[in-house]
């Protein structure tokens, strides 16, 4: 192998390795609990999402509520008694959306 081939293979290896290191995406699971909507946000690599916004919108895209995740990556929002969807936007990936019809009582 010549030095050019070794350089190309090295760049490919390190490029793929660095892509794998940053290839995590946001996740959020939500459920209904009494008069609240409880959401836990995080990332696919298992890391937490502390102090991030979780926003609640009605079906006309009006902002109903906006809360920050706590030190456990949990956001608690009072149930609005109307149809809604929730958004967790970590800022560097596609936002996570959870619709009210996906929620179950816990």
List the main descriptive attributes of the protein structure presented here.
106 residues; alpha+beta; Immunoglobulin-like; four-stranded antiparallel sheet; three-stranded antiparallel sheet; 19% helix; disordered N terminus
Structural features, described:
By secondary structure, the chain is α+β, with helices and mostly antiparallel strands. The chain has one domain: Immunoglobulins (Immunoglobulin-like, Sandwich). The chain has 1 helix and 7 strands, in the order H-E-E-E-E-E-E-E. The strands form 2 sheets. Strands 4-3-6-7 form a 4-stranded antiparallel sheet, with no helix packed on it. Strands 1-2-5 form a 3-stranded antiparallel sheet, with no helix packed on it. Strand 6 and strand 7 (96-99) form a beta hairpin. It is globular, with a radius of gyration of 19 Å. It starts with a helix and ends in a 7-residue tail after the last strand.
Describe the structure concisely.
The chain has 1 helix and 7 strands. It is α+β, with helices and mostly antiparallel strands.
Layout of strands and helices, then pairs:
Blueprint: H1 3-22, E1 26-33, E2 36-43, E3 53-57, E4 63-68, E5 74-78, E6 85-88, E7 96-99
Antiparallel strand pairs: 1-2, 2-5, 3-4, 3-6, 6-7
The CATH superfamily name is: Immunoglobulins
What is the CATH architecture term? Answer: Sandwich
The secondary-structure element order is HEEEEEEE
Per CATH, the class reads: Mainly Beta
């Amino acid at each position: 192998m010549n030095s050019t081939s070794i350089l190309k293979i090295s760049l490919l290896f390190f490029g793929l390795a660095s892509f794998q290191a940053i290839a995590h995406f946001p996740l959020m699971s939500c459920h209904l609990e009494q008069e609240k909507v409880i959401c836990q946000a995080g990332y696919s690599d298992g890391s937490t999402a502390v102090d991030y916004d979780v926003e609640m919108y009605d079906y006309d895209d009006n902002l109903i509520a906006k809360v920050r995740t706590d030190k456990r990556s949990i956001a608690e929002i009072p149930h609005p008694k109307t149809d809604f969807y929730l958004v967790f936007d970590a800022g560097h990936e596609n936002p996570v959306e959870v619709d009210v019809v996906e929620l179950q009582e816990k």
